[in-house]
Design a protein that fits this description.
This protein is an alpha+beta fold. Helices cover 51% and strands 20% of the residues. A hairpin with a 2-residue loop joins strand 4 and strand 5.
C-alpha cells in the first residue's frame, strides 16, 4: 500500500502534499549526509519541534555511532560535550524499534536526565528508521512549540522515516557501485601492469642476463670480467625483486588456482623476509566450482590478508603472525594476528590500507573488526561465501 494511503485519515492535505514533495526530493539524493540533514529540517517543519536528531546505529545495532542534530547551535553542542550513545529513553527505542511518544521525557522510568548545559526538553517523539526491515537508526524530536506531539505528528514522522530509509538505501547502493567499479578498475590495472612487467620487462632482463653470461664466459681472463659479474648479480637481484612486485600486483595463482594457493604463495614470499608466519586454510570444495568463489570475494580475502601482513611487517615490525581462513556455515572467517607494535585503528582515515580494507569488506556484505595494542594486532573479518 502506498505510504500516503496509510496515513491519509490522520493527515491533512497540506501535510500530505509536503511529505510527497519531500519524498521525491530525498529519493534522488545521492549523498547520505544531505538526506539526513534535509530530513531533520522537514521533521521540525512538519511537527513544530524545536529540536530534531537522527541517531545512526552501529554494526551490532546496540548503540549509536552517529548522532546528527538540528536546532541546537554549534557553540552549545560543544558545551554539552560528547553526543549520546543510546542510553536511557534513546536506548529503549533501540531495544524496541517502535514509535514512542512522551509528554514529558524526564518522567519516563528509563530517563537518565540531561548532561550539563543541555537545553530543557519535555515533549518527545521517537520513530525508528528501518532499511529493508532492519533497524538502521532513529528519528528523535523534542519540544513541540504548541504542546505535546499528537497522532498526526507520529504518522508524519513515520512516513518521513520511510522516505529516509529508501533514500539512504539508494544512496548507499550508488556509493557501493562506485566503490565496486573503482576496485574492479584497480584490479584490472594491477593485472595489466603485472602482465606487462612479466611479458616485457622480465623477459628483457632475462635476455640481457643470457647475453652478459655468454660474454663473461668468452672473457674469463679479461679485466672486464669482475664488472660483468657485478652486472649479472645486479640483474639477478632485479629479477627477484621484479617477480615479487609482479606477485604483489596480481598473483597468477589467484586467477588460475584460487585464493587458497594464492595465500600459500603470499606466505611463502613474506616468510622469506625472516618473519615467522603460520597459515591455516580450510575452504569448502564446492560441488561444481572447484572450490572457487566469486571473483570479488577472492580478491577481498587475498587483499585483506596481504594488507594485514604488510602493515604488521612494515609498520608494526612484527616477527610472528598467524593467518586463519576458514569457511563455516556459508561464511568465510578470516583472522590475522601478529605481535607487532600496533596502531590506533580508530584514528581519522586510518590510512589508505585500512580504508581499502573496510571498503572491500563492506562491498561484499561482510563485517570487519580490528583490535590493536602495543602487544599486537588482530584483524577479524566475516564474509559471505558466495560461489560463481
Amino acid at each position: 500500500m502506498p505510504l500516503v494511503d496509510q496515513a491519509s485519515s490522520k493527515l491533512d492535505e497540506a501535510r500530505l502534499s509536503r511529505l510527497i514533495e519531500v519524498g521525491r526530493g530525498l529519493v534522488v539524493e545521492s549523498d547520505p549526509e544531505a538526506v539526513i540533514h534535509d530530513a531533520l529540517e522537514v521533521a521540525r517543519e512538519l511537527t513544530g519541534a524545536r529540536y530534531a536528531a537522527l541517531g545512526v546505529l552501529d554494526s551490532r545495532r546496540a548503540e549509536l555511532e552517529q548522532f546528527v542534530t538540528r536546532g541546537i547551535e554549534e557553540r552549545l553542542r560543544d558545551k554539552i560535550g560528547h553526543p549520546p550513545h543510546g542510553g536511557g529513553v534513546l536506548g529503549l527505542l533501540i531495544e524496541e524499534p517502535e514509535p514512542l511518544i512522551l509528554d514529558d521525557v524526564s518522567l519516563h522510568p528509563r530517563s537518565q536526565g540531561f548532561p550539563p548545559n543541555h537545553p530543557p526538553m519535555k515533549s518527545f517523539l521517537g520513530v525508528p528508521v528501518k532499511i529493508r526491515g532492519e533497524a538502521w537508526g532513529n528519528l528523535y524530536l523534542t519540544e513541540k512549540d504548541s504542546g505535546p506531539f499528537d497522532e498526526a505528528d507520529i504518522q508524519s514522522v513515520i512516513i518521513l522515516a520511510e522516505w529516509v530509509a529508501i533514500a539512504i538505501d539508494n544512496a548507499r547502493s550508488a556509493a557501493a557501485e562506485r566503490v565496486r567499479l573503482t576496485i574492479e578498475a584497480a584490479e584490472q590495472e594491477r593485472g595489466r601492469w603485472a602482465r606487462e612487467l612479466h611479458d616485457e620487462t622480465l623477459q628483457n632482463l632475462a635476455g640481457l642476463r643470457v647475453l652478459l653470461s655468454g660474454t663473461r664466459r668468452r672473457t674469463a681472463m679479461s679485466p672486464v670480467s669482475p664488472i660483468l659479474d657485478q652486472a649479472i648479480e645486479r640483474i639477478d637481484e632485479t629479477i627477484v625483486e621484479l617477480r615479487r612486485l609482479i606477485a604483489d600486483l596480481r598473483p597468477a595463482a589467484l586467477d588460475e588456482l584460487g585464493v587458497g594457493p594464492a595465500l600459500a604463495s603470499l606466505i611463502e614470499r613474506l616468510s622469506a623476509t625472516g618473519v615467522e608466519i603460520d597459515l591455516y586454510v580450510d575452504l569448502g570444495s564446492g560441488d561444481d566450482t572447484d572450490g572457487r568463489y566469486e571473483a570479488l570475494l577472492e580478491d577481498t580475502v587475498y587483499r585483506l590478508v596481504q594488507e594485514s601482513l604488510n602493515n604488521a611487517i612494515r609498520h608494526g615490525h612484527a616477527v610472528r603472525a598467524i593467518v586463519e581462513v576458514v569457511e563455516e556455515e556459508g561464511e568465510i572467517q578470516i583472522r590475522v594476528s601478529d605481535d607487532g607494535s600496533g596502531f590506533d585503528p580508530n584514528r581519522t582515515g586510518g590510512g589508505f590500507g585500512l580504508v581499502g580494507m573496510r571498503e572491500r569488506v563492506k562491498l561484499t556484505g561482510g563485517n570487519l573488526d580490528i583490535r590493536s595494542s602495543e602487544e599486537g594486532t588482530t584483524i577479524n573479518a566475516v564474509l559471505p561465501a558466495r560461489r560463481p
